[in-house]
Amino acid sequence: MRALEQIDSWPAATAAVAVVTPAGVVAQRGPGDLGLRWASVTKLCTALAALVAAEEAVLDLDEPAGPPGATVRHLLAHASGLPFEGDAPIGRPGERRIYSNAGFDLLGELLAERAEMPFAEYLHEAVLGPLALAGTQLRGRPSEGLHGPLADLGRLGRELLAPTLVAPETLAEATAVAFPGLAGVLPGLGRQDPNDWGLGFELKDAKTPHWTGSRNSPHTFGHFGGAGTFLWVDPEVGCACACLTDLEFDEWALAAWPPLSDAILEALA
After folding, report:
1. Which long-range contacts (CB under 8 A, 24 or more apart) does 20-25 make?
2. Which CATH superfamily hosts domain 2-268?
3. pLDDT tens figures, 107-160
4. Tell me, what DSSP letter sits at residue 7?
5. Cα dihedral: 166, 265, 262, 136 (round 10)
6. Residue 205: predicted pLDDT
7. What is residue 58's predicted lDDT score, i.e. its pLDDT?
8. Is the pTM of this model over 0.85?
9. How far apart, in whole angstroms, are the C-alpha atoms of residue 26 and residue 18?
């Protein structure tokens, strides 16, 4: 796929991209086995671990968690009122969309408590191990601590296209809007009204600007990270795109990612 040649002109010293379908890898460029920091793309795996835990009755999505009045669902949807960092709420639960690393770290603590094992161990048992993400490890916080290769991020994309860890109905709920109508700031792209989010999954919907392409359907979901990383899944097209780099997210990414996504989707059309 010649579309992937775009990454050769990116300012990152190392960049790797893979396009996958439920059947496997369609195209890849860049190293597939080099472990890189996923940053906030980690939240997709933490969210999956929480969904597995909910199906196993380890926790309930609607049980209290975080600030008074908030639930696990609020934490997953960045609607708990917690700030980006810190444990002092800056809003009431369900009032606005406040992107929060703190909320996901708190979720990791709750999962560890309920599963009676360290969060990293539960994450491995619930997600990384079953998906054979053998090169990926949690080296830090549940909100941003995964490091792993492109091959593993691509496998995660395949899972989100055709789930095996949770029921399709569970993933459908997690990729639908949670707490509709909330406005908020999409990190790096400014205020969005509404700033739609699922249960851990950022939703494209009608957002503009957005880090995916103009050809991506409104049903596209995924996440990007401060390490210059992303994973989007477009269920209408039936493909996912995984990207890892060694360059921190900045204006270069907002200039480079949408054209790449559009070129990929044009090639698949």
Report:
1. 20/154, 20/155, 20/157, 20/158, 20/161, 20/239, 20/240, 20/241, 20/242, 21/158, 21/161, 21/238, 21/239, 21/240, 22/158, 22/161, 22/162, 22/238, 24/158, 25/154
2. DD-peptidase/beta-lactamase superfamily (3.40.710.10)
3. 999 999 999 999 999 999 999 999 999 999 999 999 999 999 999 999 999 999
4. G
5. 40
6. 97
7. 96
8. yes
9. 8
The first and second tokens of residue 260, run together, are 């790449």
CA 247, CA 218: separation in Å to the nearest integer?
A: 28
Tell me the pLDDT tens digit for each residue of 80-116.
Answer: 999 999 999 999 999 999 999 999 999 999 999 999 9
Q: Where are the domains of the chain?
A: 2-268
Beta carbons of 209 and 187 less than 8 angstroms apart: no
d(CA 112, CA 184): 29
Q: Which long-range contacts (CB under 8 A, 24 or more apart) does 127-136 make?
A: 127/45, 127/48, 127/49, 127/52, 127/165, 128/45, 130/164, 130/165, 131/155, 131/156, 131/159, 131/165, 135/33, 135/35, 136/35, 136/38
d(CA 16, CA 46): 23
- Indicate the helix (H) or strand (E) that contains 105: helix 101-115
What's the DSSP call for residue 203? E
Q: What values do phi and psi take at 137, rounded to 5?
A: -135, 150
Asked whether residue 30 carries a pLDDT value surpassing 90, the answer given is yes
Query: Is the link from the previous residue into 194 a cis peptide, with omega within 30 of 0?
Result: yes
Smallest Cα–Cα separation from 191: which of 181, 201, 183?
183
pLDDT digits (tens, 9 = 90+) for 157-215: 999 999 999 999 999 999 999 999 999 999 999 999 999 999 999 999 999 999 999 99
- Beta bridge partners of residue 64, listed in sequence order: 71
Would you say residue 1 has pLDDT above 90?
Answer: no
